[in-house]
């Protein structure tokens, strides 16, 4: 009750005057276990250090791009810091909706003294993007439904003879098209060269067509874990953190198939055109929330890898389960024997085109 | 007077936003706003030539792109054009990064070497104030004005800064043009420069662009820019009906990219089917409610309303638990031996799932109007019919049913129009075959950001509803509808 009145009051005051609400900081993220991990690792310590700052949590990251565009058009941006996946950060940057970041100037140096740009390295995929975690999209399977020969390769997803039953895939072309081509015999390095051509796209869809009747298509990250827990599917793709919680926290008979996991990034952006005081407050929060220790702290609550090199040695045990988190990270050498990185440039160009074909194929 | 507040409220919260959204389906000023010079220069280029445009277009494009990347609007335009031509988005992004490093500084250097005046901001300002010079150096004037605006925008003083390379590039091109035409120039400095430029080292902007991104040599990208250079475009509407704009006019898309026709048809026939199901299921319930004692009717009405008050998401998710292959219904069937383990029914993630869940969710919207209409039918009519010799069926068919038709009409319109715009339920239980057009509209609003296409799809959906409403009025009569 207290919290909701507070929200209401700040909402009203924000709409009357932005300067009155100067001490509020609206942090937008994905909700669920992920937001909780950020709350514990970043926001709570930050508020303890800065008692005059009141962090308001918003769980709108899934619609962040559309909402920021609408706010921008209405000239009333109410968000200060927004958690988005890298491809969305690139689009927000393209649309001029996110502020450009000077990483060396605006972020904390690594705990080992390295400059932020070196510490984040290649993960800075856009001028507007402040990397936070590395996550992966990979498969989980029911250990009780695969007999004595558990799947070892992503191509087992396409093998309905050895592994009969439904599998779940995301209802969009990204990742699925790549896996289909790899399992159709395309070398990993050639995947995007093939996928660029209409023939390659047809080829990927044809490969997916071999299992089309056995697929349940998901659109929310929670779908696959639920389907696995219910026994609706034998295997399915989702984010590795979701599978971790299903396996280690909920103790379901499920195991990870790390093969051909696709790395992706998640991080912060700051909306473009904030008034100076809010911009400074947002930068101050991000400076704190992305230092080496804070990024490593987040891994205590969720199995996503910190985006800084210097954070890796600081990753410890899970806060409540007490298990070592390092072996559950997608970047752990044992898990990362066969991986690839989401190709941002390719999908920025081909997303609309391939999605149209993919959806038309689904509707057939 | 008394309705003025309501009218204003409806205008502000409903009419304005909807017209604004509908307007987006044809709006296209982003191209001519971002690339004004290029759009003009492209007028003399024809896509049928199968060749990339000439140097003039590239020079105009250089100035436009230079300014656009300063204002950070080039990537936005790239995303917009990428909806029409795949690949164009990264061309704008990549070239935008390169355009400041083009070799055009040779012009700046050569002009400054020729006369130090050309490096003097105040000389530029006074020269560009001269109307005759403006007329003789049109490209330069336009570039210089744009550059001044940019300086002011960035908080710099244009009277204290030397212009950027692109202004010198325009100056070179104007002077070359003058000297080739043998024009007479009164201003001595400009004349000196004009006589000198033919000896200048030059760079080809076309080569610079192709060097930065070789796709600029491909005429198909230029054809897209030219096609979409108007302030208004039918492109979104064409896309919404599975067509596309090409240099040969509107063409139907290849079969493997057609989607929206199927989805529109599916949305309408499934909505009609759901409407039919609610009539079949709702009519007996409403009849029962209207013909038992008021006390029991109120009790039963609660049962109808209870799910109505439950969250939509909860009800949909409950259906998921019931219908899935390892769900409650299948478990009971297997347990009772009606089906075996391998024969578990597939009742969800297809059209059946959508129909079952939506029929359930929309049922109250059929029952309530039916009930309120049936309540007003005096029981004496049926009794009178029977006393005149009609049997139960005839009395119902000839006397009761016709009087309940206004309720069916009201319920049907309510259910049909609600289901045609349904989004959450099909998304959760519809799989691939049971999703509606609104799911694609939502995708284009929140995911692909193609708001123009989303608006066009929405406008078509609105038109379909209005046409069906008109047909209903024509054949059944809207006066015949009764909500209570």
Characterize the structure shown.
- Chain A is α/β, with parallel strands linked by helices.
- Chain A has helices spanning about 1-15, 30-50, 65-75, 85-95, 105, 115-120, 175-185, 190-195, 200-210, 225-230, 240-250, 275-290, 290-300, 345-364; strands at about 25-30, 55-60, 80-85, 130-140, 165-170, 215-220, 235-240, 255-270, 305, 340.
- Chain A has two domains: about 1-135 and about 265-330, 3-Layer(aba) Sandwich (D-Maltodextrin-Binding Protein, domain 2); about 140-265 and about 340-365, 3-Layer(aba) Sandwich (D-Maltodextrin-Binding Protein, domain 2).
- In chain A, strands 1, 2, 3, 4, 5, 6, 7, 8, 9 and 10 form a ten-stranded mixed sheet that branches.
- In chain A, helix 2 runs antiparallel to helix 13, helix 3 (about 65-75) packs parallel to helix 4 and helix 7 packs across helix 9.
- Chain A starts with a helix and ends with a helix.
- The radius of gyration of chain B is 34 Å and the shape is elongated.
- Chain B has three domains: about 15-100 and about 205-235, no CATH class; about 105-195, no CATH class; about 260-480, Orthogonal Bundle (MetI-like fold), CATH 1.10.3720.
- Chain B contains 25 helices and two strands.
- In chain B, a hairpin with a 2-residue loop joins strand 1 (about 245) and strand 2 (about 250).
- By secondary structure, chain B is mainly α.
- In chain B, helix 3 runs antiparallel to helix 4 (about 55-70), helix 5 (about 75-80) packs antiparallel against helix 6 and helix 20 crosses helix 22 (about 390-420).
- Chains A and B meet through helix 3, helix 4 and helix 14 of A and helix 5, helix 6 and helix 24 of B.
């Amino acid at each position: 009750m207290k919290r909701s009145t507070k929200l209401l009051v700040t909402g009203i005051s924000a709409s009357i005057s932005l300067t009155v609400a100067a001490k509020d900081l609206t942090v937008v993220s994905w909700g669920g276990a992920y937001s909780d991990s950020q709350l514990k690792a970043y926001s709570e310590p930050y508020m303890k250090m800065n008692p005059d700052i009141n962090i308001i949590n918003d769980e709108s990251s899934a619609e962040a791009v559309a909402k920021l565009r609408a706010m921008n058009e209405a000239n009333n941006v109410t968000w200060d810091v927004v958690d988005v996946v890298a491809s969305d950060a690139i689009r927000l940057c393209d649309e001029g909706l996110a502020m450009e970041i000077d990483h060396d100037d605006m972020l904390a140096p690594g705990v080992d003294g390295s400059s932020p740009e070196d510490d984040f390295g290649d993960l800075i995929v856009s001028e507007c993007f402040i990397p936070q975690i590395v996550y992966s999209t990979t498969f989980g399977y029911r250990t009780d439904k695969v007999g004595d020969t558990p799947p070892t390769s992503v191509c087992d997803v396409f093998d309905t003879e050895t592994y009969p039953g439904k599998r779940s895939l995301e209802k969009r072309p990204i990742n699925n098209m790549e896996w289909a081509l790899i399992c159709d015999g395309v070398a990993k390095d050639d995947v995007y060269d093939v996928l660029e051509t209409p023939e390659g796209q047809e080829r990927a869809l044809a490969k997916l067509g071999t299992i089309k009747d056995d697929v349940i298509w998901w659109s929310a990250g929670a779908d696959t874990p639920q389907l696995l827990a219910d026994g609706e599917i034998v295997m399915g793709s989702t984010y590795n953190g979701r599978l971790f919680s299903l396996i280690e926290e909920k103790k379901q008979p499920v195991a990870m198939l790390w093969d051909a996991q696709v790395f992706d990034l998640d991080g912060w952006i700051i909306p473009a055109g904030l008034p100076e005081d809010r911009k400074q407050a947002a930068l101050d929060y991000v400076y704190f929330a992305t230092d080496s220790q804070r990024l490593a702290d987040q891994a205590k609550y969720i199995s996503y890898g910190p985006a800084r090199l210097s954070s890796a040695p600081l990753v410890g045990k899970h806060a409540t389960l007490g298990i070592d988190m390092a072996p559950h990270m997608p970047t752990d050498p044992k898990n990362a024997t066969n991986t690839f990185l989401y190709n941002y440039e390719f999908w920025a160009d081909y997303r609309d085109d391939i999605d149209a074909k993919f959806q038309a194929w689904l509707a057939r | 007077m008394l309705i003025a507040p309501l009218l204003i409220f409806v205008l502000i919260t409903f009419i304005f936003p909807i017209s604004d959204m509908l307007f987006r389906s044809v709006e296209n000023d982003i191209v001519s706003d971002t690339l004004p010079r290029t759009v003009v220069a492209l007028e003399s280029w024809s896509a049928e030539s199968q060749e990339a445009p000439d140097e003039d277009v590239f020079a105009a494009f250089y100035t436009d792109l230079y300014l656009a990347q300063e204002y950070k609007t080039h990537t936005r335009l790239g995303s917009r054009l990428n909806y029409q031509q795949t690949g164009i988005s990264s061309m704008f992004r990549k070239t935008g990064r390169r355009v400041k490093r083009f070799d055009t500084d040779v012009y700046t250097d050569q002009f400054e070497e020729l006369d130090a005046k050309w490096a003097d901001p105040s000389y530029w300002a006074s020269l560009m104030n001269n109307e005759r010079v403006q007329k003789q150096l049109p490209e330069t004037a336009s570039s210089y004005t744009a550059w001044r605006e940019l300086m002011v925008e960035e908080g710099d003083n244009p009277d204290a800064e030397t212009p950027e390379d692109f202004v010198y590039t325009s100056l070179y091109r104007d002077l070359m043009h003058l000297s080739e035409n043998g024009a007479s120039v009164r201003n001595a400095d400009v004349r000196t420069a004009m006589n000198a430029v033919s000896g200048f080292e030059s760079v080809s902007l076309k080569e610079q662009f192709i060097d930065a991104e070789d796709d600029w040599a491909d005429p198909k990208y230029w054809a897209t820019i030219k096609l979409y250079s108007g302030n208004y475009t039918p492109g979104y509407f064409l896309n919404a009906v599975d067509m596309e704009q090409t240099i040969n006019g509107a063409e139907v898309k290849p079969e493997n990219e057609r989607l929206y026709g199927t989805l529109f048809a599916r949305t309408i026939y499934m909505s009609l089917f759901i409407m039919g199901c609610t009539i079949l299921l709702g009519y007996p319930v409403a009849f029962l409610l209207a013909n038992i004692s008021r006390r029991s009717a109120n009790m039963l009405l609660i049962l109808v309303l209870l799910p109505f008050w439950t969250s939509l998401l909860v009800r949909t998710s409950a259906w998921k638990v019931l219908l899935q292959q390892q769900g409650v219904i299948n478990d009971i069937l297997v347990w009772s031996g009606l089906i075996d383990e391998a024969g578990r029914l597939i009742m969800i993630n297809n059209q059946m799932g959508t129909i079952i869940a939506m029929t359930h969710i929309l049922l109250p919207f059929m029952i309530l109007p039916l009930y309120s209409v049936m309540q007003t039918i005096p029981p004496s009519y049926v009794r009178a019919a029977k006393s005149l010799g009609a049997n139960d069926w005839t009395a119902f068919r000839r006397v009761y049913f016709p009087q309940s038709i206004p309720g069916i009409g009201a319920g049907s319109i309510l259910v049909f129009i609600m289901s045609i715009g349904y989004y959450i339920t099909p998304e959760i239980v519809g799989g691939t075959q049971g999703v509606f057009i609104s799911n694609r509209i939502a995708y284009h609003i929140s995911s692909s950001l193609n708001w123009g296409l989303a608006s066009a799809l929405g406008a078509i959906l609105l038109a379909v509803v209005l046409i069906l409403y008109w047909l209903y009025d024509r054949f059944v009569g809207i006066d015949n509808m009764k909500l209570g």
